[in-house]
Batch of 2 targets.
Target 1
Amino acid sequence: MRQIKSFLQWLLETKVGFFTLVLVLFWLKTYCIYLTKFSLGANGAMQNFLLLLNPIPSGMLLLGLGLFLKGRKSYWVIIVIDFLLSLWLFANILYYREFSNFLSLSIIKTSGSTADNLGKSIVGITHATDFLTFLDVGVIIVLLLTKVIKIDVRALKVQVSLLIELLAALLMALNLLMAQKDRSGLLTRTFDNNYIVKYLGINEYAVYDGFKTAQTSSQMAKANVSDLQSVKKYLRANYVKPNPEYTGVAKGKNVLVIHLESFQQFLIGYKWKGKEVTPNLNKLYHAKDTLSFDNFYNQVGQGKTSDAEMMLENSLYGLQSGSAMSSYGTSNTFESAPAILNQRAGYTTAVMHGGAGSFWNRNNAYKSFGYQYFMPLSYYKNISKYYVGYGLKDKIFFAQSIKYIERLPQPFYLKMITVTNHYPYDLDKANQTIDKTDTDDETVDGYVQTAHYLDQAIGELMQWLKKTGLDKKTLLVLYGDHYGISGNHHKASAQLLGQDEFTDFDNLKFQRVPLMFHMKGLKGGIKHTYGGEIDVLPTLLNLLGVSDKGTIQFGHDLLSAQAPQVVAQRNGDFITPEYAKVGSTYYYTDTGEEIEQPDSKLKNKLVSLSNRVTTELSLSDRVINGNLLRFYKPKWFKKIKPSDYDYNKEKALKKLYSTKNKTSLWYKNHRKSTQSAFKTDAPELKK
Ligand code: GP9
Ligand code: MN
């Protein structure tokens, strides 16, 4: 009893006690808000532990600043800091509700109009419970005014305050270490703001975001119009005329882009225990009306999926580190596929993805790209058996997408991002319909299983396209975004390929992913042209009969006879039909043999190829880092204003379901849904 009393006395009558009380209340409140107001997706013991822990270090550090002051001032400063921290939480609660993301300095800075919109709707989206964010501040003030808390005017030794700050810094470092261990590349790869908050905390996120924003805006400030001139000069000098034989063969068709997650070229035709792993894609690959490419390379860097998207939508490379879509997707100006197709050919543009909208900053970047619709996970019914890894299982994703696809005004440009075939290639028993491979490398052996599943899902979607007749009106584009088996699995990779060894050169060739254009009546065939993701947009635009002349795009039409066939990798490695480079070693492409002592002519050739690759990469980087497209104003293009786009589900669906829209599949089907034409064997959907 005595102890409790003296503890209470310490808490209510000493300065450190007061500080502790404020900190504990702030901690508990923040944790409750994490759990109830955001969906941070903490999985497993470590992530949950860090989520619980992470409000403490920054709270301690910031509130602790007040301890350096004397007398009453100290108390009020602590309260003001507490209030500001709460205000930041409160603002994020509202912003998150509307945009499923955290507030960013670049948003506050660049899109005043978004803030305006938010201002108008603020009353509409605020819930009464949001104000509980300020409850602890209020309670503390009342306790002070009623003198339950007595102000301790004695000065605190500076050493004590310093010790508290030191402890906070140590805790912060420990937190960061544990977070990095659980998710390597957390700070450098810029996955998702949710990850930063989940692992490090909402205040640390503010610092991280502030740092990123400062970095990007300083680079941008240095850039000027003359940088754009040098880019233009390079592109003009290297312009490749698209193949006229294919110009406009798909004019006016819908474009359905299917993003095959982590899908490598070697899977095409691959058999395991006598069974084809991807029978549907194999059939498509060999179909006479499919243009397939067997020397098509992924060119992604750390930004993985988002780099693939950046290249396909813009024909610009990802960056050397981090994700360009995350770092620049919100603030930069783009001239992207959806915007071009919408403005020049009247396309409706949409992305569907059964994963979190904030991942890779999609919910901001797609606005800058000019996508009219973005349907992420929140547009889909999600119960735990529907979901694996990063999103809905592909069959369930497709099944639930029908109701949206059939409502899109035609012609549409639609990208569907699959995700089940994603590392670590986990799949529940009921969905496993092919055996795992037997390399004994755990991260490799499930790959054929999830790839097989993805293939079946594609098969189901194709059936539906056929039944509804949409296949006749649609150009299907399929591509693998990047490797599924990383370069850390040489032994298992050799085994899968039936080779004795797996060299660095083999690993470069392992970066091949499928690219297919499929359309009724298309003059198809398997093309051996060397190319990469950077080339998809120019190739697509030519098929659609939309000129790419004068655009800032680093790729070329893959069907052009003059395609340069120099395929850059993000780290400066490259491959051409003759030569390849990995690290500092050169190879002959056809034999995979190392070029040991090139004569001076060959040496010059190799060096000039290497220079070409690095020049191209760095010019593309300049476009993104310097936000150069803001200076680019071609007559035919109307600059995209991200604030014109709204992915709020209710609003978007109201627009999509409007009966004014007379070109949708649904409308043409006598205003009846085609949902029943979609057949799936997904065990989760069995009645
Ligand atoms: C998540 C998904 C995965 O939404 O697109 O991205 P990745 O990890 O492959 O880059
Ligand atoms: Mn991916």
Target 2
Amino acid sequence: MRRFFVEKADKPILKLTGDERKHLAEVLRARQGDRIVVCPNDGNDYIYEIVSFDKTSVTLEFIEQYVNPTEPDLFLCVYIALLKGDKTELEVQKLTELGVRKIVPFVCDRTVKNTEKTERLLRTAHEASKQCGRAVIPEISEVKNFQEVISELSKYDSSVFAYEGAYNAGLRLGDVIHGDEKSIALVIGPEGGFSDEEVTAALSAGIKSVTLGKRILRAETAAIAGAAVIMQLCGEWK
Ligand code: SAM
């Protein structure tokens, strides 16, 4: 069943309007009697049946609701340095598929791109959530700077930054993540990596640096692989 995100799942009748109406009525050409899943971003799936169409809305009748089985218990937030081209969007799409709950784009010493339209990233997260069967669209934060990133990391049960220079120190994700955390933050640098000053600032703030292995990964690979390993370590890969 196709899924549609709304602000509120009204009962017993819901009027679907705007872009979601257009998608259902004009793109998918749904018919009276078809059933769809409606998600008000609360972790539940609400099943509705199409009653009728008019020019501005589709009238839906509530059938049943249940907890969406795909949402992880873990609140994983990934901080991603802005990347060139469409790479940041690619990260958002894949992190959404992996069940990440929040994505924070940021700029730092070596980011080449210094602005990003967060509405575009939110649209990508919305489309990816629909495609992969989630009931929650990950929150996309406004773009932050590195100092702001560091100062908010203490609110997570665990927070780590991926640093290719950490290989010799030998700290791996599995050494830092215990698996019973409720919230985790993972920080990934830009194409050119973190500057020495940023590494020092993060370590002084008590953020652990972790290696993602012997090979230097592209930033987007590091974000996707790092999130996948954390999900596995926390028992969310099932
Ligand atoms: N500074 C590096 C260079 O130019 O050789 C490359 C930076 S890497 C392409 C981009 C980001 O991915 C890094 O800032 C880091 O967060 C993450 N990363 C890539 N490979 C990694 C590894 N093996 N261990 C830890 N982090 C890694």
